[in-house]
Amino acid sequence: MPHCGKFHPSSLSRRAMLAQCANGFGALALTSLLADKSFGSVANSLAPRTPHHAARARSVIFLYMDGGPSQVDTFDPKPRLTAENGKPFAMKMEPTQFNNNGNTLGSPWEFQQHGQSGIPVSSLFPHIAQCVDDLAVVRSMTSAFSEHTNANYFLHTGSGLQGRPSMGAWAGYGLGSENADLPGFVVLNGGLIPPGGLDNFNSGFLPATYQGSVFKPGANPVANVIPTEAKPELQDAKLTLMRKLDAGVVERFGKLDALESAIANYELAYRMQSAVPELMAIRGETDATKEMYGLGSSNKMTATFAEQCLLARRLVERGVRFIELTCPAGGGDRWDQHSNLRDGHEKNSRAVDQPIAGLLRDLKSRGLLDSTLVVWGGEFGRTPFAQGTNGRDHNPFGFTMWLAGGGVKGGTIYGATDDYGYKAVENKVAIHDLHATMLHLLGIHHEHLTFRFSGRDIRLTDVHGEVIRAILS
Question: How far apart are CA 360 and CA 362, in angstroms?
Fold first, then answer.
């Protein structure tokens, strides 16, 4: 057809072409969307990925002791505290959170050596004491923060500021998950969300698919995964329409993390409708297993944490990459005993002692401990001198955490604090070192796991971190 010669048709952009050809390409996108591995990169965001080196651990269970257990009352005995109980504290006191400093406070609990390794454990943990030959006890942990919220962010994300990805999110980003029907990062909430809130489990600047999924106690731990339609056909019809609408939005606007993550979460929630009830069906466990964990305990907190520990083992069996357990609600103020140390620490230890020992024994008997890294600890420790007369204040200068399984050398003590248990004086370990070690055991080189954000490559360990090789088997 003749034309004036002054008109030159412009080329179409890919997005404009797709928008104008919505009918044909929309159907093509919908066909792909309805496939088993729908949405390509969205569906595969948690697919298993090859580690940097041979991994010793496939999964991590983080037993988070919210509030800060006292190192000198649990795994770091200090006879000098007992000898000088009630006397003025002989070392210079650093500024503490509340500065209501009292005299030297000896531990109310006795320590005894256990196992072939002879590691001393206080009478707070009679069950865990029987598992010491599987533990690597790190007595020289340090933190950069003495306030709960910042210390929690630091422990979970490697930064004391809000907004960074949690270590569970980093693990998922680096390795994916081995189960397409469950999240790669699961938080088993016993009832106490730590100071700092859900941002302790967030994905930060990583894609939102890597954030922690919080499971509540009880028969229905996850919201919105129980079918609500009277007939499966009705739900399938709604999901088909939702997929079609989502496909159209993706075609119009391109790849957006918030949109693609929402789509992936809807798809995951659909698959979880069958996976979660099966996960929660602990009635199939033997009576001996339930008793070992303490599910039948008359103590409500013990029974709650026992169920969390049993679910953690079941999640590991199903290929979930990172599982964190929070403390159970129901008595006391976490491990944060600024007063009434004896009462609070006894309540908290009673809640977790038998379930944790049951978890370690169960994993070991099933051959899972070798491939599962178990980490125990809080955001900091507590002072060896009293706050007031019968409590302890926050202490980030030297505290204890322990690791077990997943390539860790059991029956090991690493690092030391001074004679009062106040400050780390031998083989100091920073939180970044802990993170580097955890990633190393998962097969990840912590310096190579990065994400481009705000103009630079950022990692969990920032510009720090050394693997604690002395505790590796």
Answer: 6
**Rounded average pLDDT over 364-387:** 98
CATH number at residue 135: 3.40.720
Render pLDDT for 297-337 as a digit per residue (tens, 0 to 9): 999 999 999 999 999 999 999 999 999 999 998 766 799 99
Q: Look at residue 1 and tell me if it is in a domain.
A: no
Distance of CA 275 to the CA centre of its chain: 21
Percent of the chain with pLDDT over 90: 70
Predicted TM-score (pTM) of the model is: 0.85
Asked if residue 163 belongs to a domain, the reply is: yes
Residue 91 phi/psi, 5-degree rounding, is: -95, 160
Residue 363 CA: distances (Å) to CA of 31, 118, 176, 241, 457: 43, 22, 22, 43, 37
Residue 416: CB partners within 8 Å, gap ≥ 6?
139, 140, 424, 425, 426, 427
* Lowest mean pLDDT segment, chosen from 29-33, 81-85, 149-153, 405-409: 29-33
Tokens standing for residue 259:
């949109």
pLDDT digits (tens, 9 = 90+) for 41-57: 444 577 889 999 999 99
Confirm if 383 and 394 have CB atoms less than 8 A apart.
yes
**Residue 35 within a domain:** no
Quote the number of domains for the chain.
1
Residue 170: inside a domain: yes
Q: For residue 86, what are the domain limits?
A: 59-228+278-471
Distance between CA 286 and CA 9 in Å, rounded?
74
- Range name among 35-44, 54-63, 101-110 with the lowest pLDDT average: 35-44
Please give the structure tokens belonging to residue 83.
Answer: 């000898």
Q: Could you tell me whether strands 424-426 and 416-417 are parallel, antiparallel, or unpaired per DSSP bridges? A: antiparallel
Radius of gyration of the chain (CA): 25
User: Helix 257-280 vs helix 300-317: angle between axes, to the nearest 10 degrees?
Assistant: 110
Residue 175: predicted pLDDT: 96
Give the pLDDT score at 142: 98
Q: How many CB atoms lie within 10 A of CB 352?
A: 30
**Cβ proximity of 223 and 229 under 8 Å:** no
Amino acid identity at 200: N
344: Cβ–Cβ under 8 A, 6 or more apart, which residues? 332, 333, 335, 336, 337
Task: Please list, in sequence order, all residues whose beta carbon lies within 8 angstroms of the beta carbon of residue 257, skipping any fewer than 6 positions away.
Answer: 207, 208
Average pLDDT over residues 231-248: 70
Backbone phi, psi, residue 403, to 5°? -125, 155
CA distances for 67 relative to 152, 327, 339, 344, angstroms: 9, 9, 13, 11
